[in-house]
Amino acid sequence: MKIYQENNNIIIENSKDFCLKQTFDCGQCFRWEQTDDSVFEGVAFGRVLSLKTEEDRIVLLNTNMEDYENIWAKYFDLSRDYSKIKQSLSSDTILKKAISSGEGIRILRQDPWETLVSFIISASNNIPRIKKIIGLLCEHFGKPLGSRHFSFPDAKGLWGITEEDLSPIRAGFRAKYIVDAVNKVASGEIDLHKCEFLDTDSLKKELMKINGVGEKVADCILLFAFGRTEVFPVDVWIKNTMQKLYPEKCSNLKQIRTAGRELFGEHCGIAQQYLFYHAREKGGNI
DNA sequence: CCCCAGGTCAATT
DNA sequence: AATTGACATGGG
């Protein structure tokens, strides 16, 4: 992978393990939209970014090397060697087929607060409506960024918010969970910055102190915000897929979680994303 | 009018 | 410790 600046763009050349559609469409994030055949646009860490695919390169539009180094390189997990991981995961012949439909997936390193709130909202919900609710949250409580975008409101900015204040975002029963997350994070009772330094089990317990954060939501935050690729979030899609692909090892939810770790090892979280993408693309059939 | 959607919580067994 | 229904909202 070769990276350089050209005018106001950052070029990522030879990006064979990086497909924008697969990365943004594998269910880990909710604020990127395709604006054109090859262009995606979205917001992360208070920055608006457009990206364009051009043959074997990806172009980050209207940005600079400083933002690339401080934000986007980490956000897109560009220092990780996905070829090596895919090769290792492919020793499982069943998983190998799932990988082949999402070879360009990368696990984003997203903002912990945004990820926490986003996956609270994801509970018993569908993806279009999750995106809708998050969009409304940003429009109502975030800062305008340019003409069409808003930042994700931080916890301190939401301090003191009530369920009633949140009614315009139509989050339903999840509103009270968002309020609890705001209270615990804005007060400092839970310090997401310090959480970075906790081991995975302690961090998971810490996150689950928040009402509305159970095991699955906690695992998603661990994977998509803290880069803990050793966790294996199990949602309905993964549950159904695992039961179809590994029926003898997946008779209940608890078994599926341990099966993920045992079958796929230290990077089972990445395997989970290939499976999720594959399941949604092909209806779970290998 | 029914069912379901990246689950979680609390009551009940 | 395992099981079960409620929880808001919108779309099919």
Question: Mind explaining what this structure looks like?
Answer:
Strands 1-2-6-5-4-3 form a six-stranded antiparallel sheet. The chain has a two-stranded antiparallel ribbon with strand order 7-8. The mean pLDDT is about 95. The radius of gyration is 19 Å and the shape is globular. The longest helix has 15 residues, at about 125-140. It is built from 13 helices and eight strands. The chain is α+β, with helices and mostly antiparallel strands. It binds a DNA duplex (13 and 12 nucleotides) through helix 6, helix 10 and helix 11.
How many helical elements? 13
How many strand elements? Answer: 8
Share of β-strand residues: 5-15%
**Overall pLDDT confidence:** 96
Form type: globular
Q: What level of helicity do the residues show? A: 40-55%
What's the structural blueprint in terms of helices and strands?
Blueprint: E1 2-6, E2 9-13, H1 20-24, E3 32-34, E4 39-44, E5 47-54, E6 57-61, H2 65-75, H3 82-89, H4 93-100, H5 112-121, H6 127-141, E7 144-145, E8 149-150, H7 175-186, H8 192-195, H9 200-207, H10 215-224, H11 236-245, H12 253-264, H13 268-282
The chain binds a DNA duplex (13 and 12 nucleotides) through α6, α10 and α11.
